[in-house]
Amino acid sequence: MAAHDVMPDIELFQPITVEDASAIAARLDGAGWILAGGQDTYGWLKDRAKHPGAMIDLAAIEGINGINATASGISIGAMTTLRDVMRDPLIAEKFPILTQAAGRVASPQIRNQGTLGGNVAQDTRCWYYRRGLSCYRAGGNICYADSPEGMNREHALFGASRCVAVSPSDTATALVAVDATMVIHREGREKRVPAEQFFIGPAINITHMTVLRPGDILTHVEIPNTWANTESYFEKVADRDVWDFALVSIAAVMKTSGGVIDDARIVCGAVECVPRRLRSVEQALSGKPRNEQTADAVAGLASGGARTLNHNQFKVPLMENLVRRALRT
Amino acid sequence: MEIVTVREDVWGREVLLGVSWDWLWVILALTFAAIVVHLLIMAVLRKQPRPSAAGKRLTRHDNFDRSFHWIMAISTLVLLFTGVLPIIGYDFNWLTIHWIAGLVLTGAVLLHVIRAVFFQDFGSMVVAPKDLKEPFEKGRKPGKYSLAQKGMHHAMTLLVLVVIGTGLVLFLQIDTPWWDRPNSLAESTLGWMFVLHGVSTLGLVGLTALHVYFALRPEKRFYTRSMISGWISEDEFSANHDPARWMPDETARS
Amino acid sequence: MSNEYLHIGKNFVPPDIYGKVTGKARYAEDYSVDGMVYARLFTSPMPHARVRNIDASAALAMDGVLGILTADDVPAVEAPNAAILTNEPVYVGDPILAVAAVDEKTAENALKKIKVDLEPLPFVVDPLASLKPNGPSARTEGNVYPSEMQNLQWSAEDLNRFQRGEEPTGAAPTEWSYGDLEAGFDNAAVVIEESFVTTGYAHMSMEPRSVLSYWRGNKCYVHGSTQSQSFVVPFLAGMLGIEQGDLVYISEYCGGGFGSKISAYPVLGLPGYFAKKLNRPVMLRITREEEYYIGSARVGFQGWMKAGFAEDGRVTAVDLYIVQDLGPRRTGGDASSAGGAISILYQPQAMRLRDVPVFTNTTPRGAQRGPGQNQIAAIFEPMLDKAARELNLDRLAIRRINAPDSSATLNADQGPVTSAYMDDALALGGELFKWSERVQRSGQRRGSKVTGVAVGQGYHSAGASGFDGLVRITPDGKLHLHSGVGNLGTYSYASTTRAAAELLKCSWDNCVVHHGNSSLHLPWSSYQAGSNTMFTHTRANHVAAMDLLTKMKDIAAQTLGGDAADYDIADERVFNASDNTRNMSYAEVAAKAIELGGAYSGESYPEDIHEVTQRAVTGIAGSGLVGVAKDKLPKRGTAPGLAVAFCEIELDLETGKHQIIDYLAVGECGTIVHPQGLAGQLRGGAVWGFGMASLERHVYDPQNGLPANVGYYQTKPPTYLDVPSHMGWAAVDKADPDSPVGARGIGEPAMGCATAAVMCALSEALDGHLFNRTPVTPDMIINHISDGPQATSLMAINTF
Q1: What's the whole-model pTM score?
Q2: How close does chain C come to B13, measured CA to CA in Å?
Q3: What is the residue range of B105's domain?
């Protein structure tokens, strides 16, 4: 076995329009690799664990970087850096949950380079998969993590279908909570996919984390005003306070009137291959006051249906605790 | 073009991954070609007069056998679609339906095998040396099943048993409501299971397509009707079968 | 007292800082020579295997590929010593061969084309799996290594007892003891008995150990990364099969070693052999992943300990049993060192240590900052707190009552110490940290958070003797300080030379420190490990400076008349004490020395100096006034390095995460020589100590022997946001009598006390619950609080 650490020979395309980027990506099919901030690219390439023949660099494309108010909400270009998302006053005012989520991604250095689009489209962090083993997710026919003695501390409680990897993105959790829409360009046409449907689990497709396929370019993330200026809570629990991916995270938004919850979106990260909507909790909250008693009453619903692995049982009480913390004032 | 694909196991050794699915298009193309060729030949050949469906009705397949057939047919089609569509790029939640259909097929096949071997005329489905003369001797009529039907059944039997056998082995390796993934197979063995499962699937794609084609052919359609309603007419019987070798009972008309 | 000194106890700018801050510092990988080729390693994908065949033909046929180096091209070693390359890899990542090409990319591409046929062999990643009846052995030659390869299997009952955490009954090949253990326990008011696991984890030195090597005739040049400098020379020369004088070894900067780069390690010699084979300079670049594999790790402990305490808190007896996870290679005595640490820190009246050193197919282990001492501190200190609670004693008080003083004894032979003032450290820290005030709020709840206030202690022996010093004054008046000490990042290569500058009353601006390259005439030195350098080399520099001073006075007397005893020094001049008009500048003395020759200018030297020093003196002979001597000053016992840490944490009971609100470390390491250096050790050691307590560990999948935590992301060293932004420090600053400067070392206990303090604080915050395992991670805390089972079985090691 070789511990590679050198960039391979690879072609570089630097298109200046989304149409060109999409056309190149569609033509190259699986041999093309979309390059945004590169934070989930160079590791794969240098380790020679993935072997695209070409990188398609989006940096020169205009119109997909920046944050703008729209008639019905906010539009964020997919190439906007996480640092810019985190510092944007408009997002901070209307959707502080995204500000907090973006601010908890990785480290300041990574946020300077990493983009919002890249953050939601990033690949999972299962250490077996990242090591370059040919498991299901890599196109193989086996999972090493979900095995009798597998080292699966960071893996999924829900939605496993042969693969037990989890969603690693912090912003994804927040974007699902605020009903964001992913705007995808494909060969001259635009597709709009609700955030919740953008992420897919292994039962649907075991080699992809999202609906993006060769030829698709995620250009914008749009957030409607539905959840603007509502009460919100974001928390990410990780081993270290910087750099680490979440062990469990939570993004909650609530519409309240007189302290009573009318509607809520509660989403957990890192417990499933996709950001997990806690629908049973959301339903139980309707009409309840936002307080400690409600928190304690519904917390247990969060983990319903969990199927634990050897090393991840702790995620069950941790999920419940995060729901409690989200619902306390 | 390779028949199989390979991958590296956990220790970097090359092991089988599965059949190369490019062959799916080859199989489909070949099957399609075969169907087209047969269609043309049959269109060109002098048409034989069709026997009449009226008159006395004789029982060809009883309730049990028809139920078996259709349960096996539907589960096989469900298995084929849920198994193959994701491979060619259609994303949907296929695995649970696939193994449920697989268990249904397994159950049906098991019952069918027990019934056919111990409670029915097993020999009537087996190709005997004398059956091989059938295509060459004009006027020679078969017993209950023709050489072609027996041959198709043999091929189906082999492929279905292989796909079920390997399918069950693979089923034991996934999470189910009854057990957790044991990862108990050596990776090379796992590879063989996937290869055989895939090869037999390819065979089943071709054979199923051919089987459906023949079932819809005008001169064979009465057989298809008999698999739905259970009977063939006396006329159809005399035109196609040797009473010395097979004499069905009269059907009780409903 | 420090403030009487010119240099001792004062800060200075170590010469290597400029390079480090500006980026001009050249580490081994930064060097380039004409014709250099690039080598890359092919390492084992299996935890234990035998090479059946190597087919490199496709790689060798590639344009730009120059050749391969296999185990057959380098000297064979006897198991379980470390090999440069191997045909029986014993862990995932074990180097099997190297390939060289004209550039890195070609070398990488060539690696892919090499086919190595491996036969898998039985493997273990948990020592207990090897001890069970008919259990697999990590090595074909045996599974344990007390002092030679042996086979040891326990009975099923022995193993079950051990796995349940009960007093072990399995055979232990190594044992030492002193005192009456039974009486010690009989006389105890409280007996605490716990089983424990401290998982090993990688050093993960910041600089991967790349090496450049080339030959010029018979001379071999090696640019490497080691903690030591002169100490490396004989071992590296031996590895390469050459005379010491034919080796030029350059290691001016070392980006961290922490015990993994103490001396010549196997890969240091690999490019030398490769360069000889190819007749080209060879740069072997080690990647971060490879650094995880070959860069050493801490020995793991699975153990059991029983400690008896008298009513007043005095430790009466300690019975310690340790199964060591050695990795697959021979390594030193962490278990014995653990016993030693207990014997000195708590002064038990009776002790027994039993030790089972077992091989596993995990990355090779070696010394890691406080090897043995720091593991046991993490475990014993919370047990001490438990005893304090049961005896209703203050947790600081129980440490004070057991604190070693200058009459302390340690180890199996119960030998003496040079001095020890641990009670002073505890008292000083207690006062600065406002212990009696803070401890009131230990256990207090604030929402979901609970406070924990604790104190922890660390120890390591911290001084050696018998090494050489070499100093020289040249006719331009400069004092040349020849330091054979390696630059492992503590600045001791420079700070220890200040003892010479001090004695000679030289301005630091007139001093030149020579270090980092064996052709710069550097004297024989200790290894830079085991916290010894500050003690050892302030002494060595002192005796060399004394030699120079003596000669200087001689020369003055010869030149200006009178007796040497009449002369004194000041302002870089030597003068007659009764008539200071009779004086010479240092520069003039140096010129005179050259004229006089002999011992004055290094043309002759003392018989007892080391071969390395002899070559160094020969190299500078005739260039000035030379002071050279072997340190033969008395040393009455072990020079201890002691440290105490106080911390206050806040633990969130809902997330299992804790924050260190405040931290204070107090060093008991004799006179402070270099305050910034000491602060760096106390703080830097603390950071790593926090990592050991709550973050870092080996994780191996027992089904296939693969490591889960390769790379900085998964090894999880603490980050800026995981450590307090302010960490206080202080030192007792009481001179050790066995050193003219009074200094002892501190590197290792600086880490152990931090680990102990955090382990104790977590326990405090959880009503005294002992996890008896390092690291204590958020998931373990969550499982404990929610009354759920822990994910791992009690004694499992190398697991999440």
Answers
A1: 0.95
A2: 9
A3: 13-34+56-240
